[in-house]
Amino acid sequence: MESIADPELTDATLLPYEQVDVPVLIIGAGAAGARAAIEVVQEGTDPEDVIVLGKRGHGDAHTTWARGGINGALGTHDPEDDWTVHAADTLDEGHFVNDPSKVETVTKQMPERLHELDDWGMNYSRTDEGEIDQRYFGAQSFRRTAFAGDHTGESLLDTLVERAQSLSIPYRENVMITSLLTEGETATGAVGVDLDTGKPVVFNSNAVVLAAGGYAAIYNRHTSRDDENNGDGPALAYQAGARLMDMEFVQFHPTGMAVDETDEEWASWSGRLVTEAVRGEGGRLHNSEGERFMKRYSPDQMELDARDVVARAIAQEVAEGRGTENGGVYLDISHRDAEFIQKRLPRMYERFQSLGVDMAEEPVEVAPTSHYGMGGVAVDETGETDIDGLFAIGETMAGVHGANRLGGNSLAETVAFGTVAGRTIAARGLGSPVLDEEVVETQVAPALATLEELTNREGQYAPRAVFEELQSVMWDHAGILRDGETLESGLEKLETIRRKAQDLTVGGRTSQSFEVAIDIQFMLVAATAVLRGALEREESRGAHYRTDYEEIDPEWQQNIHFEQADLGGMATSVEPVESPSEAVQAAIDVGYELDYHQLE
C-alpha cells in the first residue's frame, strides 16, 4: 500500500489531496468488512495490499449494537434443525421475495462460521456441557440463535478485529467516503475526506467492497447510533451506476425504548433497541390495561411471532388507546429472577439499572422503531454488483432477507458474505492499481471541486435541521402503516428538502455540519427509493404494509430494482423471484413452526 501526499496535478487549482494506492479497498469496518478483509488475506493476498476504512474509531462500528445473537443450525438443543430449515424460516419470514440462492449461501455456511469464530476466541454463552448455547428468536422453528449474553455483536466484532490484527491487516479510522471511482463498468477506487485533518483522500484500487451499513436511520425514531446507517453504502453504489433493490422493505423492530422525550436523562435513548433476546428469554408484552395482548394477535407464537406482526400489534394497541404514557406498551421479564436476567441479558439489565429501572422488579416501556433495511444494493452470488470489482456486503446488500428479516440473520449475513466476497477477490490475484489520467480529470477533479464548494458554504439552512426534517418526513410518510396518498405527499416533501440541501450553511471539512451535509445527500437517495418502491408495490407483504392494499398479492412476488435514469431521476423495473432448491422446498413443505408455549 502506497500513500502519496500532494501529487503533482495537471490542474493547479485542484484541491490538494492524499493518494493511496491499494489493490483492495474495504469501506466499512464492521463485521462484514472485517470478515472480508480476513478472508482476502487468509487466501494468500499480502496484507499490505488491503486496507479497511472506518468512518469512526477502529472497533467502534454499528455491529456492536447487534445484541441478541447470530443464527446457525448447530442443533445444540434441537438436533432436528439443519440449514434447510434455517433457509425455510428465512424465506418464510421474508414472504418469499428473498433470493433463494443467497439465503442458501448464508444458511449452509453458518455452522462452519460459528465454529470458526469459536476457534478464534469468541466469548459465546455456553451450555452446562460447554457447547455453544442457542436461544429462541422470533419466527424461528428451533433454537438456533447462538449468543454472547446480550452483547453478541460486540463480542463478534472484538473477535474479528483481533483476528484481523493478528494477520497485520491495515486499517484507517475516521475517513468518510463521499464518492466512488469507475472506469467504464469497472470500479477503480474512491474519494473521501479524513475527518481528523479535513484533507481529501483518493484511493486508487482494483477491488472495492462496500460494507458501510444500511439506511434505517433515515427515520427519526431508529435503533442506530447518531449519524450511522444513513444510506451511505447503497447511495455510493447507486451514484456509481449500480442498481438498488427492494428498498421499500424497512423493518420496524417491535421493541425500541419508549421514553419521556422531555426528560433530559431519558431523551437520548428514544427508539434505542431493547433486544429481541428479552422476548427470547420469556419477556411478555402487556398494554396499559394489563392485558397480554399478543394472545389476540398471535395465540401460538405470541411475543415471538415475526417482527412485523408484533410491531403492527403494538402500533394497533397504541392507536386504540391502550398504550402507555410514552406511546408504547410494557415489556415485562420480572417473572424471571434477577440472577437469570443478569446472566442472560447483562447489557439490558445494566442499561435500565443505570436509568433507575430494575428489570427484575418492573416492566420497561417499548414501541416500534426503525431497525433494518432489507433492501440495498443488487448483487450476484458473490456479492459483486453490476460494476466489475465493486462488491456490496452486509446490510449494504439486498437479497437475503426479502420483505422481513429473521432476527439473528443480520450478523450471520455479515460473516457469510464477507467470506464469499473476500474469497472471490483473493482468487482474482489483483495487481498494482493504476490511476488513469482520464479518471482524475473526469471524476476525481469534480469530486474534489464538490468538496471544496461545500466547505464553509454560506446558505439559509442548518444541515442538522434539514437532516431531522428528512427523518420526520420518512416516519410520517413511509412508516409502519402506509398508503398511496401519504407516500405521494412524502415524495413531494422530499423535493423541498432536496432544494434546501443545496442551500446549507456548512463549516470546515472537520466539522460535524460538513459530515451531516454529505449524509443528507446519501439519505435523499435512500429515502427516494423507499418512497418510490412503497408506492409502486400495491400490496402488503412483510414489513411493507399498505392500508389501501392490505393483502399479499401473488403477482407481486417480485423484486423492484432502482437505477439512475438516462435523463436523470430514478427509474424502476421489476424482476421475478427465483424458486428455492428442492432441499429447501422440502423443508418449506414440512411447515416447521415455533410453538411459543414450549418456553412456558
Q: What would you note in describing this structure?
A:
This protein is of the alpha+beta class and 600 residues long. The protein has 3 domains: 2-8 and 29-250 and 372-427, FAD/NAD(P)-binding domain, CATH 3.50.50; 253-371, Flavocytochrome C3, Chain A, domain 1 (Alpha-Beta Complex); 445-552, Fumarate reductase/succinate dehydrogenase flavoprotein-like, C-terminal domain (Methane Monooxygenase Hydroxylase, Chain G, domain 1), CATH 1.20.58. 35% of the residues lie in helices and 16% in strands. The chain has 17 helices and 21 strands. It has helices at residues 31-42, 83-93, 100-119, 152-166, 232-239, 264-267, 277-280, 294-297, 307-319, 338-344, 346-354, 409-427, 437-454, 463-477, 484-500, 512-536, 582-590; strands at 2-5, 18-21, 24-27, 50-53, 70-71, 134-135, 145-146, 171-172, 175-183, 186-194, 200-204, 207-210, 244-245, 250-257, 284-286, 329-332, 364-373, 376-377, 390-392, 558-564, 570-576. The strands form 5 sheets. A 5-stranded mixed sheet has the order 1-2-11-10-9, with helices on both faces. A 5-stranded parallel sheet has the order 8-4-3-12-19. A 4-stranded antiparallel sheet has the order 18-13-20-21, covered by helices on one side. α1 (31-42) links the parallel β3 (24-27) and β4. α2 packs across α3 and α2 packs across α17. The chain is globular and about 70 Å long.
